[in-house]
Amino acid sequence: MKRRKYALAAVAAAAALVLAGCASDGGDGGSGDGGEKPSFEAGSTMAKLQEAGKITVGTKFDQALFGLMGPSGTPEGFDVEVAKIIAEHLGLDPEEDIEWKETVSANREPFIENGTVDIVVATYTINDERKEVVSFAGPYYMAGQSILTLADDDSIKSEEDLVGKKVCSVTGSTPADNLEAIGAEPVLTDAYSKCLDPLRSGQVVAVSTDNVILAGLAAQNEGEFKVVGKPFTEEPYGIGLAKDDTDFRNWINDVLEESYEDGSYKEAWDATAGTVLPFVEPPAPDRYEN
Amino acid sequence: MDVIIANLPLYLQGFGQTLFLLVVSGVAALVLGTVVAAMRISPVATLRVIGTVYTEIVRNTPLTIVLFFCALVLPLLGSKLPYMVAALIGLAVYTSPFVAEALRSGINGVAIGQAEAARSLGLGFRQSVTLVILPQAFRMTIPPLINVFIALTKNTSVASAFFVVELFAIGSKLANNNGSAVIPILLGIAFFYLVITVPLGLIANQLERKWVVQR
């Protein structure tokens, strides 16, 4: 019987380890820069964040143009700039008072649910399934799935040409599921940058994911690849936050609208993704009912 | 829990791939590792050196780099291997020095008198190794060898980064599609790994009791 006890203990320990990966950490941030501070209703999330003098933001660290960890030790990209705009409107210093946490597809919801991060800005597609556990401000950008091929390959013009062919994408991503749905054969890895070698060596005919990510890959490898066809899905990128924190969500939507008006949104775009992608008018925030 | 039940076919598909990776690369690593161990105890100096160099190089290279080489560098050198085969080769090569070291510790545990007795009976090197030393060494290496295979079970998950859709990759896929139940999904994945590793540990204990060399 002793042995059975050990086996149970082993199962419990393994479960604990899985969960420990999601532990959150507290900690005090520094104080703001003491400049003009907007004032918020006591008890609101905005007031709490301002009080703490710190906001924790989840973003991608491996997504060129949107959230890419640079040599400086802080991530850079459009998502990062959007988060900075939000921090600024809280009266925080965007360079000092943001704690960046890497979020990957599998941990975005748990991180929001257990308070590890305050908001997630990480090429995060809004969908109904996710709305069950988190709330979304935005959309602040409308992406769409597209196709990347070798620059000298003219055989692929749209997603219809991918049926039955091997196409590279990332494990556990919406684009990978879409490829399966249209009848292509997904070849999966953990980062889009790894998809380029199979494309070069001819083991896949294309790479497929959101057009903005493909543009980043094409830009990093000048003249080697091209983005073909029109986007065949709509991926509205939103800002994830705690479910039912409607005040906070509406406030972020206000901030987004204001950034569209005062040009800070376009400025953020031009400095990052705008270096390789044309500017498109931002979508209106969706103030959906819970 | 409902999420796991609803996606059981996918879980099982991933589990099958993981099991396949484990068994095939495990057997290959066992064969390779035995050869390397034999090289390291052989009377021929050149073989000993080759065995030692191989062990040190492969054992000290991170698995990710070994698999990266198999899946991404070999194709650039003109190989046309399917990714599954590349992963199998990478896992087998990476695991073989650990097998060899476990065996060697077992071989070193065989009393020197056994080898001398074999030689005085007129057995050659090959015969004394295959008939006298290795059978005893295998028994003594069962516990460390099982440890190696438990590690290999978990190492197979690295293949998910190199175009093989095994258990861990299925986990990422399900987590992405079921944002409201990420934790249960990951616990389900952990459970399937335990289905392999816990029995391995129990088998190790059983065999150890049954086979231990009587002194």
TrEMBL record, chain A:
Q: Report the SMART domains cross-referenced here.
A: PBPb (SM00062)
Q: Which domain of life is it from?
A: Bacteria
Q: Which UniProt keywords apply?
A: Signal, Transport
Question: Where are the coiled-coil regions?
Answer: none
BP GO terms, sorted: amino acid transport
Q: Record's CDD domains?
A: PBP2_GluB
Protein name as annotated: Glutamate ABC transporter substrate-binding protein
Species this protein is from: Agromyces archimandritae
From TrEMBL, chain B:
ABC transmembrane type-1 domain mapped to chain residues: 15-204
Its family remark reads: Belongs to the binding-protein-dependent transport system permease family. HisMQ subfamily.
Instruction: Read off the Gene3D superfamilies from this record.
Output: MetI-like
Chief subcellular location = membrane
Q: Name one GO biological process term.
A: amino acid transport
The name on file for this protein is Amino acid ABC transporter permease
Q: How does it sit in the membrane?
A: Multi-pass membrane protein
Which NCBIfam families does UniProt cross-reference here? Answer: HEQRo_perm_3TM (TIGR01726)
| Entry keyword set | Amino-acid transport, Cell membrane, Membrane, Transmembrane, Transmembrane helix, Transport
- Where does the record say this protein resides? Cell membrane
GO CC annotations, alphabetized: ATP-binding cassette (ABC) transporter complex
Q: Which GO terms describe its molecular function?
A: transmembrane transporter activity
Which InterPro entries does this one have? AA_ABC_transptr_permease_3TM (IPR010065), ArtM/GltK/GlnP/TcyL/YhdX-like (IPR043429), MetI-like (IPR000515), MetI-like_sf (IPR035906)
Transmembrane stretches, start-end = 19-39, 60-77, 83-100, 145-170, 182-205
Q: Does the keyword Zinc-finger apply?
A: no
CDD domains cross-referenced by the UniProt entry: TM_PBP2 (cd06261)
Source organism per UniProt = Agromyces archimandritae
